[in-house]
Amino acid sequence: MGRLETERLLLRPPTLRDVPALFEFLGDPQAMQHTHLDTSLRQCRRRIAVHERRRRRDGYAPWTVRTKQDRSIIGWGGIYEDPFDPGWGVEVGYAFHPRVWGRGYATELAQFCVDLADRALMLPELNAFAKADNTASRRVLEKTGFEELGFEPALGRLHYRRARG
User: Fold this and answer.
1) 92-126: pLDDT as tens digits
2) What is the pLDDT of residues 31-61, one digit of tens each?
3) Which residues pair with 130 in a beta bridge?
4) Which of 45, 49, 79 has the alpha carbon at shortest distance from 62?
5) What is the set of domains in the chain, with CATH numbers?
């Protein structure tokens, strides 16, 4: 897919060197209060490795998200089929370090994912999931064209879907 970037973000497949910086937030109970928490560096490394195997198979998986400004790692996310909770189709997901919350990075990444899914990957739809009390993530999904389908008891989350535009 070549170099992937947005106005303020650089996106690339994660490497093992990224794991300590990613674990700063993927292993932070506050940052991950609405989704899966990695409880050790080993678990974080495994999650990333499993997603990278899916990238080789599917052609897409979450990226390490860096700022263009200083190239610091601030997030992890993208388009993927969740290997840990399969059967929900292609999803958009993201997690960001709390130090950058409220700056619009999640919306910028989600919009990039929508555009990529529509124009390059030609995916018929994208799914996303958010806990009902995660108002920030729900707002991101609504701003990027996702429609709420309802509560999924199996996941304990609201299910969102966006058809190709």
Assistant:
1) 999 999 999 999 999 999 999 999 999 999 999 99
2) 999 999 999 999 999 999 999 999 999 999 9
3) 158
4) 79
5) 4-163 (3.40.630.30)
- Give CA–CA dist 123/120, Å, rounded: 8
**Structure token digits, residue 16:** 């093992």
In whole angstroms, give the CA distance from residue 27 to residue 23. 5
How many beta carbons lie within 10 A of that of residue 14, not counting itself?
A: 24
Tokens of 109: 């990444």
Would residue 2 be called left, alpha or beta, if left means φ above 0 and alpha means ψ between -120 and 50 degrees? left
Spell out where 1-146 has E strands.
Answer: 4-5, 9-12, 63-67, 73-80, 91-96, 125-130
Report the chain's mean pLDDT, rounded to a whole number: 96
- And the tokens for 29? 């109970």
The angle that helices 135-143 and 105-119 make with each other, rounded to 10 degrees, is 40
Give the separation between CA 150 and CA 22, rounded to whole angstroms: 31
Is residue 134 within 8 A of residue 34, CB to CB? The reply is yes
